[in-house]
Specification:
heterodimer; A: 197 residues; alpha+beta; Immunoglobulin-like; 7-stranded mixed sheet; 4-stranded mixed sheet; 1 helix; 30% strand; B: 556 residues; 8-stranded mixed sheet; 25 strands; 20% helix
Chain lengths: 197, 556
């Protein structure tokens, strides 16, 4: 069961699969140490239309084989998470590193990224939090291309149309107008030719 | 000249292809008199029924959860059905998430502040300070990545309506694991039953994890209009307070003086929010010494750690939450992604006065899933307590086969003993509650003896899933002799295989196919008639074109 994985849990939240010193395969040494201070919550969605929750950083870029210490501060009064997916499963059970902070709490965790160029999903896995804005990407080295729907980085893979249904009426009218114009034009032409004959 | 030939062709085609069964009646009679009956033509063969692998009736994982067990000193009754609640969560709800071992808390999936139990104020051996936290979760919602719903929850095979539920405060992610699309065990319909004791000092913190505003309204449960600090406490944005915005929280207080089966729900745009699933049973138990209550009953159903009063007077207790759903409401959260568009669609475009209900659930599922977790399992000679709420938009006519039950309480208030009588259909309007005594005494009145006896809403739409039966809120009262060891009932040789396929509820499987293969199957098409009609259509088309060109030619 997933909640039995290596985990630190207290009243402020939890950190799962923290790893401060085991090197991923292919890494000879820790290339660099990063410190990230990430905030999550409504405040970071305040100026963005169409989302409700946000992160202070939606994209992190790090060197391969580097060690990341992430301090995640939850600005809201409800739980939020900062989770990385797709890490090697031999080192991170379930392939993930997970920080969860209760409302108003701050939690810190450390993990080491593998040596290959790859882009990892990071998000909050509470129902609809990723879908409503808490999605980001962790780019290791040159990465493996942008993920979809990362705020400030990439477009939504499926976009709402943002057009009212009444637009359909106007489109239909325009189609009719175009058809009529061509039809009348051709008829005029035909009459002209007949007259010339 | 060429034109005239085409006229003849078109008219001949029409006359030859026109199906004789469409001839005027008099003409057919006349033709029969001249030429006799037409020769035999067999009806089309039956088509083979769609073959789809059935889901397992009884999911075998977590079977250890079904056993009677003792966790952290909490005695948990055996689960009688094949799907069971997590016993560690039950223990944590009874002791308080602040009072259980680390191991139990980890296994429960709850946070340490999910249900905090404090002091024993009246000195009777049980805690009276209860702090409950509720979150709000969306099931089967939309995403910008996929057309499939996210955080999936099926009420029946393949039926995944958009839902909003209150949920206990859970640690970790919303899905059951990293590869899964399914919501984890405790994120489900209906919102959990909340159980407190008469006289408890209860605080409930609504942590709004959803992207829309919500509140908590304690329907029928004794609470002040404002709390001690003068803040609104009724959960009604029209009168007492502003709603709890996304990411925000608010604490409600109550100190109930009166016991009974009550109800709680969101009161923001209630015609939408309550009908999306933001509603649950709220049970206030009588104050008794050493009354350690299971503060939440996830998914409703069997109560496995019962109150003192329940153990004194009853052999078993079940919570039954009925809810109907409008497909056209739930799908609105799946059609848009932007919360502004979802809000418009749900609260302005949706018109409940034009609505019809399509899905009918008991404890968050429809038949056949109800048989996995919402059977009432009994033995002969027992007294069983049923607490029922109808949370749906329409009334239910609750009917039991093989039994007559007695209503002891209506809307949380006791009915005088002299006014009680045994009956087998009970009407419950929207949001009404009833407490029922089900006696399994085989005396021809209370019960007719052991068996697998259905109970269901006797309004027939309630026995269907979007019009397909059997479906809806059908479940059964099953005697021990009629139960298999794994918790699945013995169905006297009737196959449930078709009902455990998505195809059945997509209306693709003939209803009696499992016991009369081919007899009432889908017939093949009449190829000869189809050919005639195609030729007829061709002829009519030609005739039309010839007519138009003739008219146009004349005008020129």
């Amino acid at each position: 069961m997933w909640w039995l994985l290596a985990m630190l849990m207290n009243d402020a939240g939890m950190v799962m699969n923290a790893n401060t010193d085991t090197l991923p395969r292919g890494c000879e040494a820790i290339s660099r140490d990063y410190q990230f201070f990430i905030e999550g919550g409504r405040d970071h969605a305040a100026n963005a239309p169409g989302i409700i929750f946000g992160l202070s950083e939606h994209e992190l870029r790090v060197e391969p084989c580097s060690r990341l210490t992430v301090t995640f501060t939850n600005l809201d009064e409800v739980r939020h998470q900062w989770m990385v997916h797709g890490l090697p499963k031999y080192l991170y059970p379930g392939g993930m590193f997970h920080i969860e902070a209760n409302g108003g709490a701050t939690m810190t965790g450390t993990f080491i990224v593998p040596g290959d160029d790859r882009t990892y999903l990071l998000h909050c896995d509470m129902a609809q939090h990723m879908e409503k804005g808490m999605k980001g990407q962790l780019v290791v080295g040159r990465g493996s291309g942008n993920l979809w729907s990362v705020r400030g980085v990439s477009d939504a893979f499926i976009r709402d149309s943002y057009l009212p249904v009444s637009v359909a009426k106007w489109l239909a009218l325009l189609v009719l107008l175009g058809f009529t114009a061509v039809f009348m034009g051709r008829r005029q032409n035909k009459l002209k030719i007949e007259r010339q004959d | 000249m060429l034109n005239r030939k085409w006229w003849v062709v078109a008219i001949c085609l029409i006359l030859l292809a026109y199906p004789p069964q469409w001839y005027p009646f008099g003409l057919r009679v006349q033709l029969s008199q001249w030429f006799g009956a037409a020769s035999f033509r067999a009806f089309p063969q039956s088509l083979d029924s769609a073959v789809e692998e059935s889901e397992p009736f009884c999911v075998e994982e977590n079977q250890g959860w079904r056993d009677a067990q003792q966790i952290d000193g909490v005695a948990i009754e055996a689960a009688v059905t094949c799907a069971a609640d997590n016993p560690y969560a039950i223990a944590a709800f009874v002791r308080g998430t602040n009072n259980v071992s680390h191991h139990t808390l980890m296994q429960s999936g709850l946070t340490s502040d999910a249900v905090v139990k404090g002091r024993d104020l009246d000195g009777d051996g049980d805690p009276d300070e209860i702090h409950i936290r509720l979150e709000v979760a969306e099931l089967n919602g939309s995403s910008a990545e996929s057309r499939q719903p996210v955080t999936q929850y099926a009420i029946a095979p393949g039926i995944k309506p958009g839902l909003w539920v209150f949920a206990p405060k859970l640690a970790g992610m919303a899905r059951e694991n990293f590869e899964s699309v399914w919501a984890r065990n405790a994120l489900r319909l209906p919102s959990p039953v909340i159980r407190v004791e008469q006289g408890d000092r209860v605080t409930i913190t609504l942590e709004n994890t959803h992207y829309m505003p919500h509140t908590l309204h304690l329907h029928g449960a004794d609470h002040g209009f404002v709390d001690v600090s003068g803040e609104g406490n009724d959960g009604v944005p029209l009168t007492s307070e502003l709603p709890v915005m996304p990411g925000m929280s608010r604490t409600y207080e109550l100190n109930p003086r009166h016991a009974g089966t009550m109800y709680y729900h969101c009161h923001v745009q209630p015609h939408v929010h309550v009908m999306m699933g933001l509603q649950g049973l709220f049970v206030i138990e009588e104050n008794r010494p050493n009354n350690w209550l299971q503060t939440m009953n996830v998914g409703s159903g069997q109560v496995r750690a019962r109150s003192v009063a329940s153990r004194e007077n009853y052999d078993r207790e079940y919570d039954l939450h009925y809810l109907d759903l409008d497909k056209q409401l739930g799908e609105r959260i799946q059609q848009h992604r932007d919360p502004r568009l979802i809000t418009k669609s749900m609260h302005r475009d949706y018109d409940i006065t034009d609505a019809t209900q399509d899905y009918f659930t008991l404890n968050g599922r429809s038949f056949p899933y109800t048989l996995r977790e919402s059977l009432i399992v009994v033995e002969e000679g027992e007294r069983v307590k049923l607490r029922v709420v109808n949370g749906g938009a329409k009334g239910i006519a609750l009917h039991t086969h093989g039994h007559k039950f007695t209503v002891t309480h209506a809307d949380g208030n006791s009915i005088p003993v002299s006014a009680r009588f045994a009956r087998d259909v009970l009407w419950l309007g929207t949001s009404q509650r009833a407490e029922l005594d089900l006696l399994t005494t085989n005396d021809g009145l209370n019960a007719y003896g052991p068996g697998m006896w259905l109970f269901h809403d006797h309004q027939y739409n309630g026995t269907t899933t979007d019009g397909i039966g059997p479906g809806g809120n059908i479940s059964a009262i099953v005697y021990g002799d009629y139960m298999n060891p794994n918790g699945w009932p013995r169905t006297q040789g009737v196959s449930y295989k078709p009902y455990f396929t998505e195809a059945y509820y997509r209306k693709e499987i003939p209803v009696w196919e499992s016991y009369a293969p081919g007899l009432f199957a889908e017939p093949g098409i009449d190829g000869w008639l189809l050919l005639r009609l195609l030729v007829l259509a061709l002829g009519v088309g030609m005739l039309g074109a010839l007519t138009i060109s003739a008219v146009a030619g004349k005008r020129r």
